[in-house]
Amino acid sequence: MHQQNFITITTIRGLIQNLKRIISTNGKPEWQGHLVAILTVIFWGGTFVNTKYLLIGEMQPHEIFFIRFLLAYFCIWIISPRKLLCNSWKDELTMLLLGVTGGSLYFVAENTAIKLTYVNDVSFIICMAPLFTTFLAIVFLKNVNASKKLITGSVVALFGVSIVIFNGHFVMHLSPLGDALALLASFCWGIYSLIIKRVSGRYSATFITRKVFFYGILTILPTFILKPWSFPLSNLGKPVIWLNIFFLGVIASFGCYLMWNWSVRKIGALKTANYNYLNPISTVILSALFLKESITPIAFLGGILILIGIFISNRSNGI
C-alpha cells in the first residue's frame, strides 16, 4: 500500500510539472493547440467507462462529481498562483457560471444519464455539444456566420459519430429522462465553451480552471441536503474504485481542464469544441476492452468521417 501511494504521488508530481511547462509557455504555433485538444478529448472519451464502473460500484452521480473535483482542486492548488478573486465581480459571476455549466450541472446530468441509459447513447448525445456551441455563437456573436464549411463539417462529423458509436447498428435505446439529461449536459458544455473564450484573454488557464473547480464543488453541495452521502468510505480503498477516481480527478479533470482551457485560448472556442466529435472513438475502444462491447469494421469508416468533418469545420472562420 505504501508503494502504491508513492507511485500515485510521483505520478501527480510528474503530471503537474509537464502541465506547468505547457500552460506557462506563450507563442506556441497553432498546431499545438489542436494537438492538445485532441489529446484532451481522447482522455475524456474514457471517462464514460470510468464513471460506469463507479456507478456499478454503487457510487451516486453527485458523489462521483464531488470527489472527482475535490481531488482536482487539491492538485491545482499546487501550481496555481494565490490570486483568490477575479478583477471584477462581473468576472467572478462569470466564473460561477463556468463552474455550473462546465462542472456541477454538467456532470450530475451526464453521470445520471449514464446511470439511466447506455454509455454509447450518452456519448452520442454529448457529442452534440459542438453543434450547441456553434448555434450559440451564431446567435449571440456577430463575428460568427453559419458558413457552408462549418455546417457541412459538423454534419459529416456527427454522422461519423453515429457510425462509430452504434457500430453500424442504428438503434437508440430510448430512455426519455436519461436522454434529456444527456442533452442538458451537452447544452451546458456548449455554453461553457463560449464563455471560457471570453475570460481566457484576461486570466490564465490555471486560474480559470481553479475557479471552475471551486465553483463546481460549491454549487454541488446543496445536492447533499436532498441526497446525503451514502457511499461507504471504506470502499474507496478498493482498487477498482480509487483507480477510476484517480483517473477522473487527476487526469480527466485536473490535467484535461487545464489543457482544454489552454486550447480554447490558443485556437478558439469553435475549433476546440469540434474535437469533441473524437470523443466516441476512445469511448468505443475502451468499451470494447473493459465493458466487452464489440467493434465492427464499419466503425473505422465512422472514424474517418469524423476526421474529415473536423477538418472541414476547422477550415471555416471561428472564434
Number of DSSP helical runs: 15
Given helix and strand content, the structural type is mainly alpha
How many domains, as an integer? 1
- The mean pLDDT is 80
Gyration radius over CA: 19 Å
Largest sheet: none
Number of strands: 0
Strand content: under 5%
- In helices, the fraction of residues equals over 70%
| End-to-end CA span | 48 Å
List the secondary-structure elements in sequence, H or E: HHHHHHHHHHHHHHH
Low-confidence stretches: 1-7, 22-27, 168-172
Shape: globular
Task: Supply the key terms.
mainly alpha; 319 residues; disordered N terminus; globular
Task: Walk me through what this model shows.
By secondary structure, the protein is mainly α. It has one domain (29-314). The chain has 15 helices and no strands. The protein starts with a helix and ends in a 5-residue tail after the last helix. The model is unreliable at 1-7, 22-27 and 168-172 (pLDDT under 50).
